[in-house]
Structure formats: structure tokens, C-alpha cells
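Session log. Operator J.P. requested a structure for one protein chain; no other inputs attached. Running the standard single-chain path with C-alpha cell output.
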Amino acid sequence: MPDVGVLDHKPNPTIDEIVGLARIAEGAGADWLTLSDFSSWRDVWMMATLAVQQTESIVIGPGVTNPFLRHPWHTIAALATLHDISGGRAMLGIGAGGSALTDSGDIGRDSAPDRVAGLVTLMRQVSDGGALDPETGHPLGFPLPPTPVLVAARRDGMLRCAGAVGDSVLVFRIPQSDLDRTIGMIRRGAEEAGREDGPAIVWCPLVAWDDRIRPYLRTATVYSTLESPPHLFDQWGLERDLRNEIRSVVSKGGIASAAELVPDSVVDDIVLPDPDPETVAAIGRAVGASTIAIRSFVPEAVPEGVAWARDVADRL
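Structure written below.
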């Protein structure tokens, strides 16, 4: 049976909210849960530790961390520690980092594909018994079990990187008009890396599978106005001045206000109009999805969302 995952959504969730979400997701039958990693929020590794301590079977990890704000050794040690505490229930979600790294942190992300690939490669070498520092032989002081790697990608370089090194790739907030090109870029990355089988496609469709999440869907499109490939800006009629205004509002923490600025042309291209499981599954089959994920906009609605996702996944 295909896996079903849950992506944490709430900005800067409290400890109680994360523990509650983990329990709800596990009780609903989700296979895995990712927790957001944002530099000014509560630390993702500490929150993940608390979440695995309060659950028994669900796999948990960052969704997604980035290769810029922590040294690779720290990320690998944190991941191994999470495995140690959870009895092997850790995963690694990784990506280029959000636009806030560039806008507020003055961190250029052009090197993200190389950095992500380097971190994932080193992690796997350590998992196989290699050293943290191959030159000196400096080791990790305790075992790192094999770890599933979920790569989140949007721009071409990261899509090819995801195809090259990911066990799976998160396809989220991808416009319907750009799905085929996106999947093609992932496959190109896999081919360039000499992989016979590319990564699994984890699709998180933006659709109102429950009326309680409908008000949050426009908010989920905000980052697409900042991080999508340039050709989509022209297609949507998304002028530079409007993008800059949205970016400014987001950088000050006003995600809800920024959502009001997102044009309908963006929302209509990203949000699916029909939550019917067979309708959604047909799109999933077309892009080769093998896993369905939902965003936990409303934790109380997660059980309904997991059941809906399982229905979709069974039809893939």
C-alpha cells in the first residue's frame, strides 16, 4: 500500500501543538510526518525529538531543513540522535531553504544543489561506516542507520539534484501548468546521475479535501509567487513590483496579508478545484506519483485528510 505523509503547516508551532499533531497523525494512520525548519521558529530537531518520544510508529523528520544554516556534521549528528531516541524512526527532508534566507539572512542560494548533494552523499557514507571527515578520518561517535531522504525542489537546479540524490521528491505548490516540465526535470537529473530508477514522487496536491482547510489554500500559494521559475511569472502576469511587495510583507511575518496580494491567476493554477479522489489520482498517475501527502492546515482535520489521501494513494 502506498505511503501517506503529513506536512506540518502551522507557523512557529508550540511544543504542545507539535506533540499533538504527531499523535493525531499517527492515530490517523499516517506513515510519516515532517516538521518545518525555519531559523526564527522553535528548533526543528528539538521539536522532532519531543514528537518521537510521544509516538510509537510514525517516522518523523525535518520538512525541510537546508544546507546553509548548520554545518553538515551538525545535521548528521542531529539525525543520528533522532534515530537513537526514536528507535530508527527518523527521516531527512532537505531543500534549498526558503526565500527568507536570501531576503532576510543575506544568504545566496545558488549553491544549494551542490550543497544538498554533498550533505546527502556524506550522510550516506557515514551511514555505511565512513568518517564525517574523509580526509582526517574523524568519525561520527555513534551509528547512523540508513535514512530515507526526501528532497523538496522548485527551481531547475534543485529539481535535477532531487532526481540525482533523493529517495523521494516532494512535489508541492507546483502549478498544474508546470507539472509535466517539473517531473521531466527530476527525471533528467536521475538520468544525468546514471540512476536506472529515479526517486519516488511524493505529491502534495493543494485541494480542499475538507471545508475546514479551504481558507488556507491561498496562503499556501504565497511562496510560489516568490520561488517559481521566471517563465511562470510572465504566464501569471505577476509583475516584479507586486512580487517585491509580497516579498516585503512576507519578510515581516505577514504571510496572511501577503496571501491577499496573490493574484487569482496564481491560485487558479496551483489549487485543484475538485477533491474527488479519482480525479486527483488521475493527475497523480500522470506524473508518476507513488505517495500522497497532505498539509496539516487544521490539525483536527488531519484524520479526514489522511483517509482522503489513502483513498487517492490506493488509486494511483
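Operator note: DSSP finds 14 helices and eight strands in the chain.
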